[in-house]
Specification:
Layout: H1 2-10, E1 19-24, H2 41-54, E2 56-57, H3 60-68, E3 76-83, H4 87-98, E4 104-107, H5 118-127, E5 133-135, E6 143-145, H6 149-163, H7 168-182, H8 194-202, E7 206-209, H9 222-240, E8 246-248, H10 260-268, E9 273-275, H11 301-313
Parallel strand pairs: 1-3, 2-3, 3-4, 4-7, 8-9
Antiparallel strand pairs: 5-6
Length: 325
């Protein structure tokens, strides 16, 4: 009751309403000691119980419409997922439905039906490598100890950080180099199938665009940005036979992963809303093409709730006069 009261004090609804948008990526069927940055089914179910108790959860499109109309309910929230992992359908969606909740799933369409994102090539190459050390020094990626779970996680983080902001062809080449050097077997079923996307939409979930190949938009020319976004939007509209009105920026940090010019491209393409990974909550003055998102990382009820309250209380919510440059 204390957390709910604090949240209510921060988000009273109406013209003064605030919208908390939560972001997830994967929900693992079982806990994984290496991939511990994603919740497992038990943890996600626990978090959804708390969210349902504390918030009035809305589909994101309705939440944005009510933000525009100054009719948000008190303690408004929306749930989102990025990238398009298969466990969004097989693990996350049944948990959401069991709590009577809905979510918006932003899909990088080039990886549907058996594809794999470059970062997952790295993660699973290192995760499944049988070697005690992984020597990537010939391509400037260092030598990594893999003798413990902690060391494996550290190696993954280091390699991803080294590769993330390379140009897309080089990024893919380096990810494939890591895979070849590690010699590990890689999964081909990490991402959703087209049929699973249709199933999720039929079950009442929302589907949004997330580009085709998940590039860092700030590294692309405006024409390339437009192509990436339209390829994703057009594919999903053809697949689902409906307008796609929502977009999520890959990686999503303002001024780092996308620029003001990219937000204007999204606006010109006719989206109703676009979400970032900047912390904070949205209010009536927020730029609809740069809506903030935040997800607590605490595994305890008290910690999870207080992190949500702090995000609302200290919100650097992006205003129309503070767009990315």
């Amino acid at each position: 009751m204390i957390v709910k009261g604090l949240i209510h004090a921060c988000s009273s609804g109406g013209a003064r309403g605030q919208l908390s948008i939560l972001i997830f990526h994967r929900v693992l069927a079982q806990a994984d000691s290496v991939l511990n940055w994603d919740p497992d089914a038990r943890e996600f179910g626990q978090a959804m119980r708390w969210i349902k108790e504390w918030f009035n959860v809305l589909p994101l499109d309705q939440a944005i419409a009510r933000l525009d109309a100054n009719t948000l309910p008190p303690r408004a929230a929306a749930i989102t997922f990025d990238d398009g992992y298969a466990d969004n359908c097989t693990v996350a969606m049944p948990i959401l439905k069991s709590h009577g909740l809905t979510a918006t799933f932003f899909v990088a369409t080039a990886y549907l039906d058996g594809g794999r994102m470059w970062n997952d090539t790295v993660v699973h190459s290192v995760r499944n490598c049988a070697k005690a050390k992984l020597d990537l020094s010939s391509n400037g990626l260092g030598v990594h100890d893999l003798a413990s779970v902690h060391a494996v996680r550290a190696a993954i983080a280091s390699i991803l950080n080294d590769i993330k902001y390379r140009d897309p062809p080089e990024r893919l080449e380096l990810a494939n180099f890591v895979a070849a050097t590690a010699g590990a077997r890689l999964p081909s079923d990490l991402m959703l199938t087209s049929e699973q996307v249709r199933i999720m939409r039929g079950a009442g979930m929302l589907i949004g665009a997330h580009t085709a190949t998940h590039p860092i938009l700030a590294r692309l020319k405006p024409g390339q940005v437009r192509t990436e976004v339209l390829d994703s939007k057009d594919f999903l509209e053809s697949l689902l036979q409906e307008r796609i009105s929502l977009f999520a920026y890959p990686n999503g940090r303002p001024n780092v992963d996308y620029r003001a010019v990219d937000a204007e491209i999204i606006r010109a393409l006719g989206f109703d809303g676009a979400v970032t990974t900047a912390w904070g909550v949205a209010d009536r003055t927020s730029d609809r093409m740069q809506l903030p998102r935040f997800t607590p990382w605490s595994r305890s009820r008290c910690g999870f709730g207080l992190q949500l309250v702090r995000n609302m209380w200290q919100s650097p919510s992006m205003r129309t006069d503070q767009t990315a440059s």
